[in-house]
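okkk here we go again. third time trying to get the S-adenosylmethionine bound version out, last two times i messed up the smiles copy paste (missing a bracket lol). double checked this time i swear
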Amino acid sequence: MGLENLEVDDDGLVCADVHHWAEEKYRLLALYDKLFSSGMKNKWDQRVYIDLYAGAGFSHIQGTSTILKGSPIIALTVDCPFDRYIFCEENEELLAALRVRSARIAPQANVSYIHGNCDAKIEEVCGAVPKGSSDNRVLSLCMVDPFDFGIKFSTLKRLSQVYIDFVVLLAIGMDANRNYDHYVQGNSPKIDEALGNTEWRERWKAAGARRSDFRQFLALEFSRSMESLRYLPTPLDRMKLVRSDEKNLPLYYLALFSRNDTAHKFWDQVLKYGTDQSSFNFE
Ligand SMILES: C[S@@+](CC[C@H](N)C(=O)[O-])C[C@H]1O[C@@H](n2cnc3c(N)ncnc32)[C@H](O)[C@@H]1O
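finally!!
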């Protein structure tokens, strides 16, 4: 899948400016959404798409005239649309633009918009997911795409009470390096909250690893936290490491967390596709 399916015309509404490397995120997400939405269509009665950090729906690639669909619009325009969409965004202006775009691009879609911080609004998010039963099997896919490692594990834990897969952007590349002293020596609760425990500090000390290994350590710790919720393990070689194209710096991992083998098979296809000549780099 090339960028051609993701490019859109400027509609004059607000767009977030994103770096060039966001293109890769959108291409990988578009492929996963496509595989998941069509592959799960006949296996479940309802498929729900949740975007906890939804944005405005369109993103502008800095320094270019290119505008791309953001994650919620990508999900709205798959060939086999989801039965329900739940978009949470804390910025009112961005959410208003997303509403207008969604209504224009996918007028038939059943969308709940939730304005506010996804952690504070998690009960509202959960309340918008249809109740599942033996004759109404509901499967959700949740996109978790914050700017930094500001995820709260307790939020994902709350959502994990239903059948739900997560695609998580672990934005720890820059953050873990820049704020290492603050996170490790200081008493910042940020990583404790993202991982849902404080024991990671002991494990990091015991590992005696180099500072440069901290990024991989955090990614594996996050997988370990998800395993505590009965998710299948996601080792580093099954996470997609995205680097900046200027200095080749590691920026983030994109990772799937699912309890289901089928979802992991779809993810394998995404990883295979992401391993092209320009981005042959799993760590
Ligand atoms: C990296 S952007 C993601 C955009 C979108 N997923 C995409 O790919 O097009 C993060 C978005 O989350 C919003 N945001 C940040 N913290 C949030 C929170 N705690 N709850 C809900 N939205 C939040 C920001 O306003 C921003 O629009």
